[in-house]
Amino acid sequence: MSKVELEGICKSFDKKNILSDINLTIEDKEFCILVGASGCGKSTLLRIIAGLETPDSGSLYIGGRYSNNVQPKDRNIAFVFQSYALYPHLSVYDNMAFPLKLRKTDKKRIHEKVMNASEILGLDNYLKRKPKELSGGQRQRVALGRAIVREPEVFLMDEPLSNLDAKLRVQMRSEIKKLHKKLDTTFIYVTHDQTEALTMGDKIVILNEGKIQQTASPEDIFNYPANTFVATFMGNSPMNLIPANINDNVLCFDRVMVTLSDFNKKILGDRKKVLVGIRPENFTPYFTESIVPTGIRMHVNVDGIEAGGAEKNVHFKLDNTDVVAKVNNKVNIGATADFITDFADFHFFDIDTKQRIV
Predict the structure, then answer these.
(1) What are the φ/ψ torsions at residue 121 (nearest 5 degrees)?
(2) What pLDDT score was predicted for residue 293?
(3) Which of 71, 83, 107, 159 is most buried by a 10 A CB count?
(4) Phi/psi of residue 64, each to 5°?
(5) Residues forming a β-bridge with 20
(6) Each residue of 127-161: pLDDT tens digit?
(7) pLDDT tens-place string over residues 183-226
(8) Which whole number is the average pLDDT over 34-40?
């Protein structure tokens, strides 16, 4: 049982609140991602779980055991650091064996555990090498191996891939996911990379300024963002947020006018203004006049185009709001363009609270 529960956790440094009333349950064997911008408190939260920081208030339970006053070495957790934290004078084998030697584990048992971890991580050919003789990805595997041999209840990982190049990060993401399935235990993983969060986790916890903004599956985070912060933070390109007026049950922005259904009128209530969220990928270029568009058509002046890989970002304005459409890079866009978007893809947020309406 490796369930982790945090109840009312608060932490401040030099009178500055870092974490405010954190309530979170991470289930047994779950892969939970803590994500947010630098300084949001995610690493501090991880260090509190590890016992490297003490909360000012609140309660921490690991495996049902009250753990606020439990020493880090007694929490049965393993911590994988961003910097790998390997001993440069020790071989790969000895780096992985080190935590077991500290526990005075039998030499035969140490060898069995190290060799098992080595096989899982593909390190058999590197056991005699020193860290300086390894690539970044290999060093990260050694750090993971050192954690695996401890057979912890909970794995804690603090931005373990941030020092790797883009190609290697993609490879290591896949390997860590496979590792989670093999070990069948609880993983808590900190990152500021939205792609890592959306592709790796069973559950994502989004933090901003020390507060949880939303806790949900990757699918629900992307499809049903709880507020405008989540909407613009998650995804390869931020969601566009466009102010819109509601007059006589008609939604209006720029030259777009949409009559609201009875359902949407009920949801939006008596609001006269809302924020409409549209993801860049929900715009489709429209070229053929002979085909009647099935969505909402927008004619825009293009302000700029960013080409990259298979897609390009097209910039334009709607009611003086900067908007981005993500389209196929093979599509030629001129000084003006027509786009189609579907009302079903609209997200609505309260203009004042910035919370999701529907």
Answers:
(1) -100, 0
(2) 59
(3) 159
(4) 80, 0
(5) none
(6) 999 999 999 889 988 999 999 998 899 999 999 88
(7) 899 999 999 988 899 999 999 999 999 999 999 999 999 999 99
(8) 93
Are 253 and 242 spatial neighbours (Cβ–Cβ below 8 Å)? Answer: yes
Distance, in Å, from the CA atom of 329 to the CA atom of 311, rounded to the nearest integer, reads 4
Could you give the CA distance from residue 296 to residue 341 in angstroms, rounded to a whole number?
5
Cα distance between residue 151 and residue 37, in whole Å: 31
How many whole angstroms separate alpha carbon 47 and alpha carbon 136?
24
Say yes or no to pLDDT of 74 above 60.
yes
Q: What is the largest CA-CA distance in the chain?
A: 79
pLDDT of residue 82: 82
Q: Which two tokens stand for residue 161?
A: 């891939």
Is pTM, for the whole model, over 0.85? yes
Angle between helices 166-183 and 136-148 (to 10 degrees): 20
Distance separating alpha carbons of residues 48 and 52, to the nearest angstrom? 6
- Note whether 276 and 346 are within 8 A (CB): yes
Question: At a CB cut-off of 8 Å and minimum separation 6, what does 47 contact?
Answer: 53
Mean pLDDT to the nearest integer, 349-356: 96
Contact assessment for residue 43 and residue 63, using Cβ atoms and an 8 Å cutoff: no
**What is the rounded distance in angstroms from the CA atom of residue 285 to the CA atom of residue 299?**
10
Q: Are 110 and 127 in contact (CB under 8 A)?
A: no
Closest CA to 22 of 31, 30, 36, 14: 36
Kindly tell me if the per-residue pLDDT of 124 is higher than 70: yes
Helix residue ranges, H only, the chain: 42-50, 92-102, 107-121, 136-148, 166-183, 194-200, 218-223, 228-233, 262-268
- Whether residue 305 has pLDDT greater than 80: yes
pLDDT at 291: 58
Rg (CA), the chain: 25
b/e 291-315 (16+ beta carbons within 10 angstroms → b)? eeeebbebebeeeebeeeeebbbbe
